[in-house]
Request: fold
Amino acid sequence: MLLTKKLFDYLDSVISGKRKGLFTVVLKLSLFDLSLLYSGVVRLRRWLYYNDILRAKRLPCKVISIGNIVAGGSGKTPAAIAIANMIRDYTGLKIAIITRGYRSMAHANSVVSDGSNILINASDAGDEPYMMAHKLPGIPVIIGKDRYRSGLTAIQKWGSQVIILDDGFQYLRLIKDINIITIDSTRPFGFNYMLPMGYLREPLSTIKKADIILLTRVDQCKNLGVIKEKIELIAPRVPVFESVHTPYALYAPGTSQNSGLDTIKNRNILALCGISNPESFVCTLKSLNPARVDLISFPDHYRYNTKSIEFIEAKALEFRSDMIITTEKDVLKLSAMRLPVFVLAIKLQLIGSTDRDFMSLILQKIMKGKPT
Reply:
């Protein structure tokens, strides 16, 4: 197996507590010290902004941040796509998406899509920006580390009235009108430690700063009540909504023809992904009643190369897989695959409340609420 995956799996086994032994104890003590240091830096930075020692800027439009407190995927990008569509459908307001473009090769403040055309290829744009540009026709997508500058670009070029920040909770240099935190119900609190001892990017107490908490993948969670009780204890005044990632199409790359989800039924599936929560992808596939699912996973945002492609193809033959199925994020980097690959398309869907309830709360915050 590839070295990067072995290292990633090893560290994950240490953080999650699956790995035991004297060396693991020593390593965890070192990680704990680093975690304390990281926590201190994060807390100091927020204190400086909250006390106006460091100043945040305001854009002349409404700003919605969608972020998380745990490193890795919590479903914030599917949430950004769903919320952008909701706002457009309910209000007709002009929207733009700004993302930092993790591992993007594009220059800062680059336009991935102007709403009509995708202007940067998948390799340069990065996983999430390109996927959002592809799935949000009519909505510009910009990569920018300086979100204020990127916001001004969106306003000047397209008259954007609402800016959605993808992964914006840690971006304190810009004043937001609404903060939405997504929490993955299958691993909600990052093993309760800050990086690198756990996966928390922020202290758990910061969820009090949210205007909305959106629980994702609640259908794959066995202790949802416990999670909600903990959130209620920390942030009793923050409304909590629940959502699932619903599969809605199966297609071959480069085509728009839906093969139908029933195609998966009773087939031997090789699940291929480079995402932070591969077990969730497997769980979604199993809900479609395949005969068997074998998993090949890589670290989040993994860039597939010749060796990894050869490894995947050899495993597909070894497993006698009927189909190789990957994610919308991974397929952008699998053009060198010689075996046929299918893509499972998913969307975020609210449950336990209607889209209208969720949207009403967002509109109240945007139109009447005070900035956070």
